[in-house]
Amino acid sequence: MYVVVVISWTQRLKSDPPLTENLVVLGTNLELPEERMLRMDQVYVIRHKVLREGLSIRAVARQMGVSRNTVRKYLNISEPERRQMEPREKPVMKTVAPRIEGLLEEWKSRTTEKQRITGSRVHRQLVEE
User: Fold this and answer.
1) Which residues contact 82 (CB under 8 A, 6 or more apart)?
2) Name one Pfam family in it (predicted).
């Protein structure tokens, strides 16, 4: 018995919607099964059920409707590390900070606390200089 399989490929742009390849087997269109990715909340549930609740891999796979290999895969990967960013340098602020402090001191002596200088006024004055 021979089965004829024709796979049609078309060129598409990045802006085009994703294509599903259709298989034509003896005049019948069969769609390829979609590869289903788990969402992160599902991964956390899998990890919680096995690691915290103590359920077996097989039981979790049955409950979640995924393969046992998938459960094993997500158990073997560790949690992503959270890296703390190093504080960035602020070269412009280093040059302007003394002038801003000077403006604040000037305005403190000229006005009451309620009428103090605003950030937009400081910016306008710095731009004018």
Assistant:
1) none
2) HTH_23
> How many Å apart are CA 79 and CA 47, to the nearest integer?
10
- pLDDT digits 0-9 by tens, 25-79: 444 343 434 557 888 888 889 999 999 999 999 999 999 899 999 999 999 887 6
Tokens of 78: 């560790």
Instruction: For residues 124 and 102, give the distance between their C-alpha atoms in angstroms, rounded to a whole number.
Output: 15
Please give the DSSP secondary-structure letter assigned to residue 113.
Answer: S
d(CA 38, CA 41): 8
Residue 20 pLDDT > 70, yes or no?
Answer: no
Question: Which pairs with CB-CB distance under 8 Å and at least 24 residues apart come from 51-56?
Answer: 51/75
Tokens of 98: 């003394």
- pTM to 2 decimals? 0.38
What are the structural domain ranges in the chain? 40-76, 92-128
At residue 24, the 3 state secondary structure works out as strand
